[in-house]
Amino acid sequence: MHRRRIWIATFNGAECRIFGYDGSPRSLTVLDDGAFSGPRKPEFSDRQTRVYAAASDHRSNAEPPTDPERAMEAAFIADIVTHLADAAHADRFDDLIVAASPRSLGAFRKLAPPELVRRVVREIDGDHVKSDAATLLAALKPD
Q1: Could you give the 3-state DSSP secondary structure of residue 143?
Q2: Which of 16, 43, 71, 110 could be 11's S-S partner, Cβ–Cβ 3.0 to 4.6 Å?
Q3: What's the pTM value of the predicted model, to 2 decimals?
Q4: What pLDDT, on a 0 to 100 scale, did the predictor assign at position 104?
Q5: Distance CA 112, CA 123 (A)
Q6: Residues 32, 48: Cα–Cα separation, whole Å
Q7: Type and span of the H or E element at 123
Q8: What phi and psi, each to the nearest 5 degrees, are found at residue 17?
C-alpha cells in the first residue's frame, strides 16, 4: 500500500502555486510545474461610456455588458482546473486541498469536473499564493 499523494493548490485570479504535502513530517514541496500566473489586471478607463437616447438628444451613462476583470480571472481559473484535472486523470495525486480567495474558490467549484471534485478533501478559504510555507502549513491545521 502506498502513501497518499496529497497536493495543495493555492490560487487567486492571477497566480497559482501547487505543492506536494507530506503530513508526517508536515512539509511542503514546490512542484516543478506548480507555479504559474495569468494575465494581470489591465488598466481600464474610469470614465463611463456615454450613449445617446434613441428618441432624443439626451445622453446617459452605459454600463459595459461584461466585467473584463472577472472574465480574465475566470479564464485563468479554467486553466488551473484543466491543469489539475489532467494531473488527476494521470493519477499524479490522490487527494487535493484547495486554498483560494472566496471568489476564486467559487469559480473553481463551478468549473471543476466530477473526477477532480472527488479528489478534493478540503477547501481553505484564504488566498495563500504569496504566503510562506509556515503560514500555509498553519492554515492546514484542523479547526
Answers
A1: coil
A2: 16
A3: 0.78
A4: 92
A5: 13
A6: 44
A7: strand 120-125
A8: -135, 140
Q: Which domains does the chain possess? A: 6-39+61-140 (3.30.420.60)
Over the chain, what is the mean pLDDT? 83
Q: Tell me the per-residue pLDDT of 14-34, one tens digit each, with 9 for 90 and over.
A: 899 999 998 777 888 888 777
pLDDT tens by residue, 74-124: 899 999 999 999 999 999 999 999 999 999 999 999 999 999 999 999 999
The CA–CA distances, whole Å, from 118 to 109, 115, 132 equal 12, 5, 28
Please tell me whether the peptide bond between 25 and the residue prior to it is cis, using omega within 30 degrees of 0.
yes
What are the helix and strand counts (H, E) for the chain? Answer: 4, 7
Distance of CA 102 to the CA centre of its chain: 9
Backbone angles phi, psi at 43, to 5 degrees: -85, 120
Which helix or strand (DSSP H or E) is residue 75 part of? helix 68-89
Write b or e for each residue in 50-86: b if 16 or more Cβ atoms lie within 10 A of its Cβ, otherwise e: eeeeeeeeeeeeeeeeeeeeeebbbebbbebbebbbe
pLDDT tens digits, one per residue of 120-136: 999 998 889 998 888 99
